[in-house]
Amino acid sequence: MEASREEPKSVDLLLADYYGLFADFKSKLWSAAWSCINIRHYEAFEKYLRQHRMERAATLTGYILSGRPVLRDASAQPFYSEDNVFRLSYWTAEEVSQLKLTFDSLSESHLRDLDPDWGALPSTQEATNAAFNRKSGLIITVA
């Protein structure tokens, strides 16, 4: 039995609404990094990661830009945003660890090559470091 195209949309809308309600109970959440960074910095960062053949990091960064669906292939059925603005994504604790280890293994000059404007990488590192220290994943929103 194949799921209809509407079922993934319904799941994404439900999760976006749930996260919004959950976020109202701020005592249950902690902020890994506060950033109001223009999305263009993440677009450039993803591009540079791909140019440096850091595909896994680029894919995870790409989820910030596109949103990340739950329990389905993002390329086959991407995240659905009702208003094409709000996006909800996540990185698992394992993915956070992989990103942290990847960034920690690079020299300062290599990090600068990945993010010449120093726009997206600082907040990405701040969030991955905070989540790594808590042995946690991250929920990422773009609004």
Question: Total helix count?
Answer: 6
- Molecular shape: globular
Distance between the termini: 35 Å
Helix residue percentage: 40-55%
Secondary structural class: mainly alpha
Largest sheet: 2 strands, antiparallel
Radius of gyration over alpha carbons? 16 Å
Total DSSP E strands: 2
Give, in spatial order, the strands making up the sheet with the most strands: 1-2
In the predicted model, the low-confidence regions spanning at least 5 consecutive residues are: none
What is the helix/strand order? HHHEHHHE
Q: Which percent range describes the beta-strand content?
A: 5-15%
Mean pLDDT, all residues? 86
Estimate nothing, just give the exact number of structural domains. 1
Please provide a written account of the structure.
With 143 residues, this protein is mainly α. The chain has a two-stranded antiparallel ribbon with strand order 1-2. The protein is built from 6 helices and 2 strands; from the N terminus they run αααβαααβ. The protein has helices spanning 6-23, 39-51, 55-66, 93-104, 108-114, 121-133; strands at 87-91, 138-142. It has one domain (6-29, 38-142).
Q: What are the main properties of this structure?
A:
143 residues, mainly alpha, two-stranded antiparallel sheet, 6 helices, 52% helix, 7% strand, globular
